[in-house]
Design the sequence.
């Protein structure tokens, strides 16, 4: 691991000032960044830790939505969202393992946009808003592909606002060596619409499965999904499974989620 | 080099570290606490598990400086000062929850965290919790039995390997 300086600001303003300087990158829970530093995949001159900033932590209900601040850990979300948005709490409780959940944050996860990350699926399915240090971006416009987001240099994720569905379920088929999803589906059922998003399966990261949304909005049942399957085009094929396998598993996860809610 | 001050197994320590120094390296090299193992480069195996303010953390995935002001417990801090094993450690011994022992410090630390949060976990909860601790020897079965015993529950399956 190359050496770097670590800064530990306690206010957002201070952190942003530091991040505006050349060679500085944010560090949150480090559950993605520290392993990549160990593999010498990154060479920052300075890391600016966001873990000591109180204004970046916490969960609150805002009307029909749940606002989760960027520095909130997965473990805090498991407890904090349990009564308000149980589907999201359940998703958070299945990210990685307990130690990953102690340290890892929603801001780091959303900013990283790993193609198998869990939160992007919930954000896309619910129509969440990503709050950054500069603006608010709809989830649909935020996730731009493999490890790509709308974030600009020096801009950080300060929170995510999720509209709270009537009911939701996350079915995750894990790749047992990494505990990331090989294919996972988040289904969010609202009064007048249904959101469905898939993660782990596509080379472009999490995406909305619009055909499934349309079918389920019309008729929320497993039967309504008869004949529906994910095209293999653009799906990940690797040592853990081919594109056909991922397509198939996404279909199974979708049906399980709907069965759990119907 | 900056200093970091924290509590390790109940004792206040101050160490000089680099920005990049991982907590695990400070514990092993700086303090000689080599019970915390390193089994991978990818933060996946859990051999380096410690408690930071009571919660499980992989010591290879946190910078030493990020642990400033926290209370860290390593495997060396789990047994009583006179060497009496903790309930969890004793159960791992009694139920043969280890073979080579490489993963054991991490397993014991993780289990300690589990039982403080959930004193009577189901078998499914035990297996889910220990997903971040890899064992290449035991097949996990006796580990699960040890955790059941440590939580005062009847270990699953046959009693053939029970302590005599
Ligand atoms: C063994 C293991 C299993 C895992 N399994 C899963 C899983 O099943 N599902 C899942 O979703 N994730 C999984 N993860 C990833 C985990 O959720 C990470 O915590 C998360 O991806 C990154 O969050 P972090 O807070 O640790 O960010 P860091 O690792 O600190 O940072 C990640 C990246 O984002 C940048 N960054 C950090 N915070 C911000 C911010 N607020 N704004 C802008 N940029 C920022 C950093 O500069 C870095 O580039 C796993 C990780 C491990 C080690
Ligand atoms: S050494 Fe820390 S997880 Fe493997
Ligand atoms: S006992 Fe050998 S790795 Fe677990």
Sequence:
């Amino acid at each position: 691991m190359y050496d770097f300086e670590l800064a530990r600001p306690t206010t957002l303003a201070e952190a942003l000032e530091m991040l505006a300087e050349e060679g500085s990158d944010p560090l949150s829970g480090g559950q993605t960044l520290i392993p990549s530093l160990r593999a010498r995949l990154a060479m920052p001159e300075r890391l600016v830790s966001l873990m000591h900033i109180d204004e970046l932590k916490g969960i609150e209900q805002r009307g029909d939505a749940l606002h989760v601040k960027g520095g909130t850990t997965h473990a805090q979300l498991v407890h904090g969202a349990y009564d308000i948005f149980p589907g999201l709490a359940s998703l958070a409780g299945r990210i990685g393992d307990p130690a990953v959940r102690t340290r890892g944050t929603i801001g780091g996860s959303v900013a990283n946009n790993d193609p198998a990350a869990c939160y992007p699926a919930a954000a896309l399915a619910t129509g969440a808003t990503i709050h950054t240090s500069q603006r608010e971006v709809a989830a649909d416009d935020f996730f731009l592909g493999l490890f790509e987001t709308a974030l600009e240099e020096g801009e950080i994720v300060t929170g995510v606002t999720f509209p709270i569905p009537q009911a939701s379920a996350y079915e995750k088929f894990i790749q047992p060596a990494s505990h990331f999803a090989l294919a996972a589906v988040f289904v969010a059922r609202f009064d007048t619409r249904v959101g469905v998003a898939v993660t782990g399966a596509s080379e472009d990261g999490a995406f909305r499965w619009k055909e499934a949304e349309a079918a389920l909005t019309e008729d929320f049942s497993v039967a309504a999904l008869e004949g529906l399957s994910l095209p293999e085009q653009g799906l990940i094929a690797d040592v853990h499974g081919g594109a056909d396998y991922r397509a198939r598993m996404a279909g199974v996860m979708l049906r399980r989620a709907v069965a759990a809610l119907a | 080099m900056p200093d970091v001050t924290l509590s390790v197994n109940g004792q206040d320590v101050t160490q000089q570290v680099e920005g990049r120094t991982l907590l695990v390296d400070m514990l092993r090299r700086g303090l000689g606490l080599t019970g915390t193992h390193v089994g991978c480069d990818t933060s996946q195996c859990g051999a380096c598990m410690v408690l930071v303010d009571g919660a499980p953390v992989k010591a290879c995935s946190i910078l030493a400086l990020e642990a400033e002001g926290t209370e860290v417990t390593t495997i060396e801090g789990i047994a009583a000062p006179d060497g009496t094993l903790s309930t969890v450690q004793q159960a791992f011994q009694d139920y043969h929850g280890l073979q080579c022992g490489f993963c054991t410090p991490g397993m014991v630390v993780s289990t300690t965290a589990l039982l403080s949060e959930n004193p009577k976990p189901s078998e499914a909860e035990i297996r889910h919790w220990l997903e971040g601790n890899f064992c290449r020897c035991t097949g996990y079965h006796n580990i699960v039995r040890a955790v059941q015993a440590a939580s005062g529950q009847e270990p699953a399956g046959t009693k053939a390997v029970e302590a005599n």
User: Anything to note?
Assistant: Chain B touches chain A at residues 2, 18-20, 22, 41-44, 46, 49, 52, 55-58, 60-63, 65-66, 68, 110, 113-114, 129, 131-133 (CB under 8 Å). Strands of chain B lie at 3-8, 11-16, 49-52, 55-58, 71-73. Chain B has two domains: 3-77, 87-150. Helices of chain B lie at 23-30, 87-94, 104-117, 123-129, 141-150.
